[in-house]
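quick q for whoever's on today - can somebody do inverse folding on this one?? i tried earlier but teh output was garbage lol. tokens:
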């Protein structure tokens, strides 16, 4: 019998941090493993206690990886209608405060033994490989698929000397993605372009949101009032996540939007500043702590306002559409996937924002069809992923050399030699603390510290 494909999904965050790279790879693992035809391992960062306290909300912490693994499986099984059938492994990570993200420590590919390495999915391939120092991903795995989640260039442009930084980052991203990934999937055209990449939204929504939408549809069909509240927005409360754009729109058009009320929900380092800016408006803008978007407090809102242009495919927008709400969002590549839904209303400028928002408040959301509801689901997202990932090429690659003619083989070998040299250059550059620090790594990221080794049961390197 043929051996099952083993898919290892590496990602840059984990629950209870409710960020996109924690939630979406988790659902991807569950749905890829659902039919039992594949072995699936989700590989996530393990943070020591002091770093957990910097990242995880509501004072949630874990004393061991097994405790966190149990928490994750329970969280997932409360949200999907089947038992999850995948395993979880941890790699050592640390939270980089200056970047607001988790970075791996050491060679994170070692989590998967060489004899089990088959197919790797790198969720945020740039992030996972900027400082990678170890076995080359393309050598260890037969097929490496990068899924680009984040519009890093847009974030960097907002920093001091942002345009120069973004130009440098663009080339670094192209470099590491090219040498470490066979195939690249971009969730939308809002991401950096990569050679030979394909644009496809391979994300879905938690099934609970679809169930909420069905209940709202039943109320509408019975001519009951399904939505009793007006406008809201939910997202990590940092300026770059749409709050700056939204509050600017509200400030500019206070007179035209007189009487409008907006509720904001989120936690983040800019929460206090967002509250102060909201108080200065003549409009009623209430700022609330973050909650799970499936919380009943959100069910009765009719209009989701999302002016963010830093997202790639906004998870909360998809969730709002699944719940049957009207979404008002910018006419931006990150929202292209959502334009197929009748409840998605886009605007090109601030005057159109006012017009579209006011109109949305006077209308009832259109009823989603079964096909539209399916397009938002993880079943459909998994179908799209399997179609564009073309996993069977991992086996076909073995025959590549023997089936090419001499000229094509020479050309292939030349490209391979150049790529090998480029990969070696990255290996050397990433092997020195000074060069790593110069490119933004935190101190001591070449090897896990003693605390992480004990927590993860890692061997102590020879000579120590």
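ok took a stab at it. sequence:
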């Amino acid at each position: 019998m043929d051996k099952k494909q083993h898919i290892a999904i590496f990602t840059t965050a984990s629950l209870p941090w409710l960020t996109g790279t924690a939630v979406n790879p988790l659902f991807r693992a569950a749905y890829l493993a659902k039919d039992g035809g594949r072995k699936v391992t989700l590989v996530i960062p393990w943070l020591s206690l002091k770093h957990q306290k910097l990242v995880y909300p509501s004072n949630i912490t874990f004393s061991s990886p097994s405790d966190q693994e149990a928490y994750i499986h329970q969280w997932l099984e409360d949200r999907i209608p089947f038992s999850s059938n995948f395993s979880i492994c941890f790699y050592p990570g640390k939270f980089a405060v200056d970047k607001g993200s988790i970075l791996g420590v050491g060679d994170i590919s070692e989590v998967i033994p060489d004899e089990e390495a088959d197919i790797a999915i790198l969720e945020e391939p740039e992030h996972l490989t900027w400082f990678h120092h170890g076995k080359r991903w393309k050598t260890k795995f037969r097929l490496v698929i990068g899924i680009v989640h984040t519009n890093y260039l847009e974030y960097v442009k907002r920093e001091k000397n942002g345009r120069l930084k973004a130009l440098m980052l663009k080339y670094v991203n192209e470099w590491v993605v090219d040498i470490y990934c066979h195939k690249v999937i971009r969730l939308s055209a809002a991401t950096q372009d990569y050679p030979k990449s394909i644009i496809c939204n391979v994300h879905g929504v938690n099934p609970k949101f679809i169930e909420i939408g069905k209940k709202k549809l039943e109320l509408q069909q019975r001519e009951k009032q399904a939505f009793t509240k007006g406008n809201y927005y939910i997202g990590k409360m940092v300026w770059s996540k749409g709050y700056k754009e939204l509050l600017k729109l509200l400030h500019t058009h206070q007179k035209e939007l007189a009487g409008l009320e907006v509720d904001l929900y989120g936690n983040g380092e800019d929460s206090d500043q967002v509250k102060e800016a909201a108080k200065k408006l003549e409009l009623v803008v209430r700022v609330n702590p973050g909650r799970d978007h499936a919380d009943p407090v959100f069910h009765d809102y009719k209009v989701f306002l999302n002016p963010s242009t830093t997202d790639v495919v906004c998870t909360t927008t998809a969730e709002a559409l699944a719940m049957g709400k009207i979404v008002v969002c910018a006419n931006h590549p990150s929202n292209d996937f959502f334009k197929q839904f009748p409840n998605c209303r886009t605007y090109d400028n601030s005057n159109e924002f006012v017009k579209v928002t006011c109109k949305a408040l006077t209308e009832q959301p259109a009823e989603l069809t079964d096909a539209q509801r399916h397009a938002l689901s993880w079943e459909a997202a998994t179908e799209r992923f399997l179609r564009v990932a073309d996993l069977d090429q991992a086996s076909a690659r073995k025959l590549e050399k023997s089936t090419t003619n001499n000229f094509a083989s020479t050309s292939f070998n030349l490209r391979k030699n150049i790529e090998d040299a480029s990969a070696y250059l990255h290996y050397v550059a990433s092997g020195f603390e000074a060069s790593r620090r110069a490119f933004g790594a935190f101190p001591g990221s070449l090897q896990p510290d003693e605390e992480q080794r004990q927590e993860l049961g890692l061997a102590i390197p020879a000579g120590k």
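fwiw The first strand starts at residue 5 and ends at 10. also The domain at 207-376 is CATH 3.40.50.2000 (Rossmann fold). so keep that in mind when u check it
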